[in-house]
Give the backbone structure.
Amino acid sequence: MTPINETNERNASGSSPAKPLLGKSALVTGGSRGIGRAIAIRLANLGAAVAISGRDRAALEETRAVLHSIKTPVHAESSDVTCASEVAALVAHTQAAIGPIAILVNNAGVGLFGPALEQSEADWDRVLDTNLKSVFLVSRAVAPGMMHRGFGDIINISSLAGLNAFAGGGLYCASKWGLQGLTACMAEDLRAHGIRVSSVCPGSVATEFSGRSPQEKPNALHAEDVAHAVETIVTQAPNSFISQLQIRPLRK
């Protein structure tokens, strides 16, 4: 687990209409590509200092360079968010590099499809650990600091597969249905501490994860559509609470 650091002086501690997240720090897991990359870039453009984690060091470095070009403090780290010790290190390194985490986006995920009873135990562990256990581990590591400060946003990137069953989706749906339950319960546990916990549930998105390019499925959602939903959550009025956003393409 090796950090890639980029430390910059923060120009201001307050926000502005153009940069509503100025003075806040965000951690995006699975932030090196696809939906996570789009979210990290959107948060940086809104003024946040941004940390990203992932397993692909080349993709992390490429996204780190893009974030650096936005002139925001950046931290990028290769990390396995299914491992508690690596999560603890990631959170400690992030906060040392860019400050206390005010926004956590649990985006790390994996898809594996086919009849559930034809999958292996290793397949089950990989999908459930990545899509569900990682959210528990990272949220558990970040939430105490948010509770101490009395505010924060935890946003879990779920899926419409967490609300609807489909053939061949057994493992993936199990992980996302579990994520919906975990998110709702965390929201109730943490709202009294000023922490908002939300889920974003997109349909099929044209990314490497889905295996579909925009050309192959022109009506599919784009990663930027999910990033816009995250922006909506983190820029809402301070006393409001969006518990869930469902996103579908306009045309089927």
About this structure: The domain at 20-247 is CATH 3.40.50.720 (Rossmann fold).
